[in-house]
Protein 1
Amino acid sequence: MAAGLAGCGEEREEPPPLRPLVVKEQVSRVVKVAGKYRVSWAAVLANSNRWHFGENVVMTIEVTDAAGKRLKRTEHPLNAVPPAGTLPVTGHEMVDEKPAKVSIAYSQARWKQASRITSAFQPFPVSEVRTRRQRNGSYLVSGRVGSPYRQTASSLVVTALLRNAKGELVDGVSTFVGEVGPKDNPRFLLVLDKAPPKVARADVTVQTWGSTARPYEELAMGGTVSLHTAKPKTPPFAEDRGVQRIPGLETARE
């Protein structure tokens, strides 16, 4: 009997298999600009694994004409996808001839076990977000970026996903912001030329830059600071008021 119990004690439950990244949303557009064609894309990748980063993912863009001729093929390394999180992706390429088809493919992620629990990887806050469509058809998104981490983030990617009134993804644009510490609040400006005609809102998010988990994990290892604490602005009471009786209200005795 003892031997049987010992054998049971040695059995270990196998960890669940890692699930692949999922493309939650994806869209591409072709717009003629200054005699050429701009091929732009926007997508959202989701990682349902709570304890692993998805690293070294490469997006491949292939543009072909109506006859099937390849006009351009490019590869774009993506930032690491955080555990139980998402990664917005945007980009564009210019081609000389008119495209008929845009194909987007992704390589398999290399999985890296996270050094901290999921809640340690806090999002970067954005504030004062403003959107405006220009008369020339471009769409502007501006705002400020903050950081919840004690260490300074050397480089961050700010992404705006543009959506229509139904919430559907119609395009996106990204930019870089560098050297963001816990007391910094730098401004960002995103400009998308010849934006879709019916943009209802822009969802702005911020990620660390790099195809591996290292930048994110180094920030988390350094700890976080509270972003919403402030010293009291009202003077303290001159004396303790103690317990005040309210007329007509008596405390029931046990």
Note: The two ends are 56 Å apart (CA to CA).
Protein 2
Amino acid sequence: MPVITLYYEDIETLIGTDKDTFIDRVPMIGADIERIEDDHIDIEFFPDRPDLYSPEGVARAMRGFLDIHTGLPGYNVKDSGIRITLDDGIKNIRPYLGCAVVRGLEFNDYSIESLMALQEDLHWGLGRDRKKVSIGIHDLRDIEPPFRYVAANPDFCFVPLDFEESMTMQEILENHPKGVKYAHLMEGFAKYPLILDAKDQVLSFPPIINGQLTRVSHETRDLFIDVTGMDQNVYTALNIVVTSLAERGGKIGTVTIENSINNSIKDSIENNIDNGTKNNIITPDLTPGHWSLGADEVRSLIGIDLTPQQIVEQLQRMRFGASVNEDGSIDVSSPAYRADILHTWDILEDISIGYGYDNIPLVIPKTVTVGKQHPISIMRN
């Protein structure tokens, strides 16, 4: 599981509390403290919460849990005016693409380190070591939209990240450290994925390496983000990255993706289809998920007697939107960056966390069981 390094100076600023309060309370949201140092703390989070793989995500969750800022986070998203076109040839190689622009950032050592760490942790947590999801983060200064996502010949040349000389894509796979590590992901393909700008300058060779041209530095103010992959986790990863950057003051801009691969993707994000062209989609889509809960279901499964309004309060502490209907049912809005909300029971778990497991009375179970070896195991032995 990912271990996140949080520097006290940074996390105190992001949350608005002191480090002692943070250290005391953070285990209650599902974290294991690995070590406490003079200037930082290392914390392990469960793999089902990739939105907590960054200081920004942890701070957002803790502000709610500490009642500093509760309820569904709101993000002002505007059209960036940038478009990227998918080449038909890419659709059999690495077909899923989500993109965004984030402007107005001011990077320091903490924020650059956290962004790079988030990128790699998402590669592991959602991306299965880049096989299903890979993320490219680019300085917008020296590149010119519109962009293209194409299938390129292996002899196409560019300067990869951390190198000074141009290499072919095949040479990168054979000689660049990242290329050697991830070359197996390109096995069996005659052409390789490539993201280019209007001048044919290289942004990224996903899922292998970015171009040196778009390297992020302390002077970077505006970012272009591409997320490529093999399934719809691409969109979740994009949502996590852009909302984390927004927690540091970034302004999120959408990107129109032209010639998207098929209707199944469009159906999954139907609220963000570009009506001008049926094969275009707009990302990121930060539309919340919508759920309905009954108070009786909550009481039955959690085992505590909460009123509908008390349930709403716990949900808001966990950064959900929630309100009580006239019939006593509860409408719930889940944040678009929460990859783990797949069923109402996932929401009930968060109600328990918000209420505090330490506040739930201890009772002896009504059923008694005795463990023994399964008969099938006995027969096999």
Note: The two ends are 34 Å apart (CA to CA).
